[in-house]
Amino acid sequence: MRTPFVVGNWKLNKTVADALSLVTELKNQLGAVKGVQVGVAPVATAIHAVAKRLEGTSIATCGQNCHWEASGAWTGELSPQLLADAGASWVIVGHSERRQFFGDTSESVGKKAAAVIAAGLGAIVCVGESLAERDGGRTLEVVDSQLAGGLASIDASSAAKLVVAYEPVWAIGTGRTATPAQAQEVHAHIRKHLADRLGAACADSIRIQYGGSVKASNAEALMSEKEIDGAHVGDASLEAVDFIALVKAARPS
Ligand code: PEP
Questions:
Q1: How far is CA 22 from CA 15, 25, 180, in A?
Q2: In tens digits, what is the pLDDT along the chain, a chain of 253 residues?
Q3: How many domains is the chain partitioned into structurally?
Q4: Crossing angle of helices 16-30 and 44-53, rounded to 10°
Q5: What is the domain extent for residue 179?
Q6: Domain containing 27 — which CATH number?
Q7: Cα of 214 from ligand 1 centre, angstroms
């Protein structure tokens, strides 16, 4: 049994004060939630304050990105070690916005994922095809190639620290969600890719999140698919009422 993992990615939103007000509501409503693991990914400047506010709860604080080096002459970057120092326990790598606008490649995502895990944190490795790639029938090929690069340094011993997020680019922030059957097809393919690389038992233990316009009204249908183990949530994680309803809907029945 894999415990579903629902992560709210706040992207470039919320001051420290706004982040604290949201997370305080989440702490009150979800701090003791059972059957589902919850995480939030604030902007870097709010990670420390949010992690402190969440101390003593099971809600994880996550970074949204990192560099692969621990320290040095890398102006503007944050290492997994510094994110851990600030209180993060997971780091998202390879989000499609990083790939699209900041030049992240499958190779750099692989280096970041390896660095995150080597630093003792969990890595959430995002993959997903564009609309043109889906329409061109290339979804599985694109996902395979992103997984090959993104997981290049991951072995079976790192599996407990690995989550894969399948996020079709055409469904992110568009209000257009993959149907549960579309998502399940790609998740099953990802599971097979993981099994071929890491062995079936290891692949079975790895959570695969779905992301792309998930909200309370569609979470239950998506999460009831066999290979979907939680959600990666953008817009619907910015308001407490929406995110709390979504997490509750994502719990296994
Ligand atoms: C995301 O950015 O990872 C995401 C899933 O966003 P949204 O929920 O807004 O589609």
A1: 11, 5, 29
A2: 899 999 999 999 999 999 999 999 999 999 888 999 999 999 999 999 999 999 999 999 999 999 999 999 999 999 999 999 999 999 999 999 999 999 999 999 999 999 999 999 999 999 999 999 999 999 999 999 999 999 999 999 988 899 999 999 999 989 889 999 999 999 999 999 999 999 999 999 999 999 999 999 999 999 999 999 999 999 999 999 999 999 999 988 7
A3: 1
A4: 40
A5: 5-249
A6: 3.20.20.70
A7: 7
For atom 7 of ligand 1, the residue with the nearest CA is 234
CA 247, CA 245: separation in Å to the nearest integer? 6
What is the 222 CA–ligand 1 centroid distance (Å)? 15
Is 95 labeled as catalytic in the residue annotation? Answer: yes
- Is the CB of 213 inside a 6 Å radius of any atom of ligand 1? yes
CA angle at residue 95 from 2 to 34, to 5 degrees?
30
- Ligand 1 near 168 CB (within 6 A): no
Q: Residue 55 Cα, ligand 1 centroid: separation in angstroms?
A: 26
Kindly report whether the global pTM for this prediction surpasses the value 0.70. yes
